[in-house]
Design a protein that fits this description.
The chain is α/β, with parallel strands linked by helices. It is built from seven helices and six strands.
Length: 157
């Protein structure tokens, strides 16, 4: 996120599990205008948020290492139900072996199907993220470069 020029929020649950992650947060308190306290609480629990000018969310990222990818997608779905005008990119990052589970099983759930039917929801595997990390050492990449390497979740017909 910093490479792309954004401020970074790392979710409260992640900080509680691993306090060392706090050093990667570039803002101490999440403050987003135009949303209520309930929506803000949900956003505080998103794994990673890239923000423009410290308060405008641009990307919501859920990293699903040990948890079922369904959990992060449901969180995003709930956020967009409460704040439908929020215009952000959503990305799920997961182990390579969970990609098929995400594509084949998870999008069948009604609230997730609704989410991916209304919005473009991206996902990327660890191997893709590792490749991107290697590239950032040699090239100046943008958020669009990151989005291009992600896959799009699409509802089944």
């Amino acid at each position: 996120g910093r490479i792309f020029g954004f401020d970074i929020w790392i979710g409260n649950p992640e900080i509680k599990m691993n306090p060392k992650l706090k050093k990667y947060r570039t803002i101490k308190t999440l403050a987003i205008r135009g949303i209520d306290k309930i929506a803000l609480k949900r956003l505080e629990n998103v794994d990673i948020i890239f923000l423009d000018r410290r308060s405008i969310p641009v990307v919501l990222i859920e990293v699903e290492h040990t948890t079922n990818p369904r959990e992060g997608l449901l969180r995003m779905s709930n956020i967009f139900e409460e704040v439908p005008h929020l215009d952000v990119k959503t990305i799920t990052i997961l182990p390579d072996k969970k990609a098929n589970q995400l594509v084949e099983e998870i999008i069948r759930e009604p609230s997730i199907k609704k989410l991916v039917g209304k919005r473009t929801v991206y996902y990327a595997t660890y191997s893709i993220i590792a490749e991107l990390a290697d590239e950032t050492e040699y090239c100046k990449l943008s958020l669009n470069d990151f989005i291009k390497i992600c896959n799009v979740l699409e509802p089944e017909e």
